[in-house]
User: What shape does this take?
Amino acid sequence: MPHIIIRGVTVDQVKTISTLFVQELADLCACGTDNFTLEIVQSTYVFAGDEVQGYPLIEVKWFERGQEIQDQFAKIVTKHIHALGIPEVEVAFSTFQESAYYLNGKSFASS
Assistant: This one.
C-alpha cells in the first residue's frame, strides 16, 4: 500500500521511471519501496469511432496521509509522468479506511 493504477502510459514508459519514482514516493510516505504496487492497465480507448491514444490517469489507492502528503505525492507523480514527455496527467486518490482493509483476514484497524 499504496497501490498505483496507471492508465494511458505504456509498460515500457513506466519501467524507465519506476525505480526513482517509487523511491521518492516511499521517502515521502516514510515506508519501504516494497509497500508500493504499480499496475499498468492496458486499455483500448475509442472516440468518435476511432481508436485514440489514452489520456494519462493515475489512480492512487491508499490510507489517508493528510492533505500535505497527498499534494506532494501528486506532484511527484506528475513530475515523473511529465519526464516521459507526456504534457498532461490527472491524479486521483481513493482512500481506504483501515477498518475496511484486511490482510490475511485481519483488519488493519486491529493492528
Q: What stands out?
A: The longest helix spans residues 11-29. The chain has one domain: 3-110. Residues 3-110 form a domain with the Macrophage Migration Inhibitory Factor fold (CATH 3.30.429.10). Helices lie at 11-29, 67-82.
